[in-house]
Design a protein that fits this description.
By secondary structure, this protein is mainly β. It has strands at residues 7-12, 20-27, 33-43, 46-55, 58-66, 72-80, 88-97, 100-108. It is built from no helices and eight strands. Strand 7 and strand 8 form a beta hairpin. It is globular. It is an enzyme of class 3 (hydrolase). Its EC number is 3.2.1.26. One of its GO terms (molecular function) is beta-fructofuranosidase activity.
């Protein structure tokens, strides 16, 4: 039997080549699976992190906030799949573009569609 446990950890580097593990910063919340692919950015005095996950057969992106990159507050669900939008969302990114916030992710489990050529 294989047991897969996912969590987010912190590593630091002074040169971008050699890294030191600092330990776990976010454990997978109860009931979530495929909790992975964190994206971190700074906004004002706070750090933010989005992470892809799955609850049952529903994909979602969760948002976290921190002042020091070590203690993280779960701010809840940023976005969640509706019917046909995939059972799991991975590789989330959340950024500003032309003054608007954009959430981008890779959904897993969507039905394939054929694109027609003009």
């Amino acid at each position: 039997m294989t047991i897969s446990i996912r969590c987010s950890v912190l590593a630091t580097s002074r040169d971008g080549i050699h890294f030191e593990r600092q330990g776990q910063i976010i454990d997978t919340p109860a009931g979530l699976h495929h909790f992975r692919d964190p994206k971190v950015w700074r906004e004002g005095n706070d750090w933010y992190l989005v992470v892809g996950s799955r609850v049952g057969d529903t994909g979602q992106v969760r948002l976290y906030r921190s002042r020091d990159l070590r203690e993280w507050q779960d701010e809840g669900i940023l976005a969640e799949a509706q019917e046909g939008m995939g059972f799991m969302w991975e590789c989330p990114d959340f950024f500003m573009l032309d003054g608007k916030r954009v959430l981008m992710f890779s959904p897993q489990g969507m039905a394939a569609e054929r694109l027609s050529q003009p």
